[in-house]
Amino acid sequence: MKILIVGSGGREHALVWKISQSKRVDKIFAAPGNPGMNSLAEIVDIKPTSIIELADFAQTEKIDLTVVGPEQPLALGIVDEFNSHNLKIFGPTQKAAMIETSKSFAKEFMRKNNIPTPAFKTFNSSVDALDHVRAASFPLVIKADGLAAGKGVFICQKKSEAEAGIKEIMLEGKFGKSGERVVIEEFLAGQEMSFMVISDGKRIMPLATSMDYKKALDNDKGPNTGGMGAISPAPQLSRDLFNTIMKSIIEPTITGLKFENKKYKGVLYAGLMITREGPKVLEFNSRFGDPETQVVLMRLKSDLVDVLEGSADENLFEVNVDWDKNVSGCVVLAAKGYPAKYGKGQKIQGLERAKVMGLEVFHAGTAQVKNSLVSAGGRVLNICASAPTLKETMDKIYNGISFIAFDDMTFRRDIGWSRR
Ligand code: AMP
Ligand code: GLY
């Protein structure tokens, strides 16, 4: 089989790595890929948002299955484009991906289907939104309706912050069209958790549980990021909680979308808050989490291609998966300043040593400049390992990291820690 992976981050490197282990796969292409994938995949110079070019490429190369990493191509309708050319692709259609791409759609959908989520109101006008927050109780949360690269959420402790947030999103147009509408919702306290399943539109296959560490700094301090690390399994997820999430959130979502003629195929990722009243949905993503995917795939013993194809072909019932009992972990090495401004082009050293020590090193934001590997993004590298216990896993990772260096390298030192 020939497989095309769309994307260039650590999540996509992990997908390439896992898919390369499939006996069914002869060749992998990655568009636009990254230097870490060089030995496993042929790099193709097409942007993830160039969906027509990608479909042309898949047709010319006779690609058997395309796997999409990031959300932007899904929002642009890459799956619809491929379907219209009879090209097999893993992921939801543009309509089904609205569960991620429009927060107001997702919230209305949850209200209609009795899926637990914070109380909310949607506003199309800044005047109405400002009126609402002037009379509201705090804290509250303001969200740009559309995709905003994880930056469109404002947690506001007081009126002045809410007013500033609405101005930034709706009046200054910081997120363009994504900010023409806002959702204002109740603030929830509790423990955050992510939950990923794969669906073929009808059947649901839960992935191994995982949790990510969203804040930039140790002890969950600092700004939100795409994720600074992850572990699998999620330690706080009991069997009861797992069943509640499946019954009250995941099953009604897949069934409800099918009912609305938005059959959901691909990964459904629920960002949850575990409150005293039970789990509630903060957001849905229509794609694999990053870096959650890295730790989940480290534990997958079965052929990932069977799973992805089962979803695309709508025969997931024929696929069984086995998970390794080991605990897996991932620490993100980032460039100082991330998620705000950061530098690039710093020479990276020590990766070979880390690999010899048995670590998996996934590239997230790197570039090859002449003979040197350099940093080229906010999240630069993902250092991953698995071992029988969380403590052994994290010790192995942090030991390996001590041999890796680039100027301005920064990382959290407490991934997995509070629950060891
Ligand atoms: P979202 O993109 O909607 O998941 O929001 C990004 C982050 O903001 C989440 O991971 C939470 O940490 C936080 N957040 C979002 N909505 C709420 C809420 N209603 N209450 C508390 N925290 C929230
Ligand atoms: N790690 C969070 C996300 O992928 O959205």
Summed up:
With 420 residues, this protein is of the alpha+beta class. It has 13 helices and 23 strands.
How is the topology of this model organized?
Elements lengths: L1 E6 L2 H10 L7 E6 L9 E2 L7 H10 L4 E4 L2 H6 L1 H7 L4 E2 L7 H4 L1 H10 L7 E4 L2 H9 L5 E5 L8 E4 L2 H13 L10 E5 L4 E10 L3 E3 L4 E2 L2 E3 L3 E4 L4 E4 L6 H21 L5 E11 L2 E8 L6 H7 L5 H9 L14 E9 L15 H6 L3 E4 L2 E4 L2 E4 L3 E9 L2 H12 L7 E2 L10
Parallel strand pairs: 1-2, 1-4, 2-3, 4-5
Antiparallel strand pairs: 6-9, 7-8, 7-9, 10-11, 10-16, 12-15, 13-14, 15-18, 16-17, 18-22, 18-23, 19-22, 20-21
Structural commentary:
The chain has 420 residues and is α+β, with helices and mostly antiparallel strands. The protein folds into 4 domains: 90 residues, Rossmann fold, CATH 3.40.50; 56 residues, Dna Ligase, domain 1 (2-Layer Sandwich), CATH 3.30.1490; 129 residues, D-amino Acid Aminotransferase, Chain A, domain 1, CATH 3.30.470; 93 residues, Glycinamide Ribonucleotide Synthetase, Chain A, domain 4. It is 30% helix and 27% strand. The chain contains 13 helices and 23 strands. Strands 12, 15, 18, 19, 22 and 23 form a 6-stranded antiparallel β-sheet that branches. α1 packs parallel to α10 and α7 packs antiparallel against α8. The longest helix is centred in the middle third of the chain and has 21 residues. It is globular. The model has no long low-confidence stretch (mean pLDDT 96). It binds adenosine monophosphate (AMP) and glycine. The site of adenosine monophosphate has 15 residues, from β7, β8, β9 and β17.
